[in-house]
Amino acid sequence: MKLKGSMKIELTDVNTGEVTTVEHDNMMTDAVSNVLGLNLLGTLYYFGGSYSNSQNGWMTNLLPICPNLIGGILLFPNTLTEDSGNIYPTSENLPVAYASNDVNSSTDLQRGSLSQTEGGAADDGYQFVWEFTNAQGNGTIAAVALTSALGGVGGYGSIADDSSAFLLMSALNQSLDDDITKLLFNAVEVDFENDTVVSIAFSSSSVVITKFRIPILSIGLKEKIDDSTADIIETHTITCTTFLPSSTYHTFVDGHDGYWYGFGNSANSSGSATLLWIRISKTDYTYTETSFTLSNAALTYAGYRSYSGYPSYRNKCVVRDGYVYIPSYDAAEVYKINLDNAGAYDDYEDVEGEG
What we know:
Order of helices and strands: EEHHHEEEEEEEHHEEEEEEEEEEEEEE
Shape: elongated
Strand content: 25-35%
Number of strands: 23
Largest sheet: 4 strands, antiparallel
Structural class: mainly beta
């Protein structure tokens, strides 16, 4: 995450009205990256689900980054070392003043207030304007640092506000009623460097390919980590004539060869197996679809998807080097099916228990 900013302090002499202005560019620490960098999609954080219908904890206190994770200010009596790893200043340098992302209605005279008429989200970032009355935040100011909204409530402790800053954590639990969540459910490829996901879904006679951006390893100042932040980049729809699997027994996988593959079949315990497949180019979305009839092949289903009740997604196949590998019906063998030679396959014997 790359953050930069600038600071301006205006000091008004209450006797003469003279205004002294100090301006300086910000040096950003690693604090925000450390909080978000080890938790892909924020799945470790509780923000709703089976316990509550409201966003909680991290979603309301830390995200969006502005004005929550960055939403407070600390003013120190001594200088601070300009080091990106200097996240916790020494207790010998306690703030003389601080402010959060709201108006101070407490009796704490060290705490100021966020201006409700100035600042806010901008096209190129976010602007904060804090105000301190004559009675608030008095003392020597040698350094200024941004902090979280919670940090700005009490600095390093406040006799006026001792509420707990600990936040509940739990596993992510969301239904598939939301369209964005369904895109995540049907994801087949993730680009971690660019925070993009490719989702492929089949409905009726169409395959829909959707590419979208979500905060995975980086997050914007005004973004959240709930699924509603997904930004659709492009969508492509393919109308099929041969690849017409059931709405439940099908799957899509990344072939890691420049193509995405779709497979559809019902499990058969004996006789011949019929396997529908489609291959889609990642570059221009051209596609090939066909149907295999595999004599004396007892296959389990290649994939299973259900959106009703408890959502379920099972993938039992993988594509490598021009072949799709699918377990046998009894899971005792694996069939290796040549995708360029319809109907040709080899079976691998006795793989049960190998993992």
